[in-house]
Amino acid sequence: YLEREGFKTSTHSNARDALNYLETHQADIAIVDIMMDGMDGFELCNEIKASYEMPVIMLTARDALSDKEEAYLTGTDDYVTKPFEVQELIFRIKAVLRRYQINAENELTIGNLKLNQSYLEIACDTKTMTLPNKEFNLLFLLASHEKQVFSREECIER
């Protein structure tokens, strides 16, 4: 179904295979079931979020509120329960990718330092800090224009 909508897919029977695939291939989104052999979907979501910049949708038969809570706490971007309408899954995939693209445009990564323009946050490893608007915008300007020199006036204008 997803291929008919223009999506290229890769299916894996367990979390380890999926992580091995991600080490050598580019993926735009991960659709994960909670119930898998070995590592469960919550753990896989944690691994993906820790290592890759991609959204995750949980697609599972488990519909308990506690499962949904755990999924969102591990970083999932959406939660779909089985049975589901294929067209609804496609709508959700497109919506998550659209939101993720908007967020990606507002983020800048330099090494292990991440600047999030939407939240005025700087994250380095496990530490996050919020800056005042003007300070953040100055830092974002300088960081996003690598090897470019700005005069004081140019910094004030921007």
Please identify, by name, the CATH architecture of the largest domain: 3-Layer(aba) Sandwich
Q: What is the distance, rounded to the nearest whole angstrom, between the alpha carbons of the first and last residues?
A: 47 Å
The name of the CATH superfamily of the largest domain reads Response regulator
Overall pLDDT confidence: 89
User: If you compute it from the alpha carbons, what radius of gyration comes out, rounded to the nearest whole angstrom?
Assistant: 19 Å
Total beta strands: 7
Uncertain runs with pLDDT below 50, 5 residues or more? none
CATH topology of the largest domain: Rossmann fold
Number of helices: 6
Q: Assign the CATH class of the largest domain.
A: Alpha Beta
What percentage of the residues does DSSP assign to strands (E)? 15-25%
The tally of domains stands at 2
Strand-pairing-aware structural class: alpha/beta
If strands are numbered along the chain, what order do they take across the biggest sheet?
4-5-6-7
What proportion of the residues is helical, as a percent range?
A: 40-55%
The sequence of SSEs as H and E is HEHEHEHEEEEHH
Globally, the shape reads: elongated
DNA-binding region: 105-158
Pfam families: Response_reg
InterPro entries: CheY-like_superfamily, OmpR/PhoB-type_DNA-bd, Sig_transdc_resp-reg_receiver, WalR-like, WH-like_DNA-bd_sf
Domain OmpR/PhoB-type: 105-158
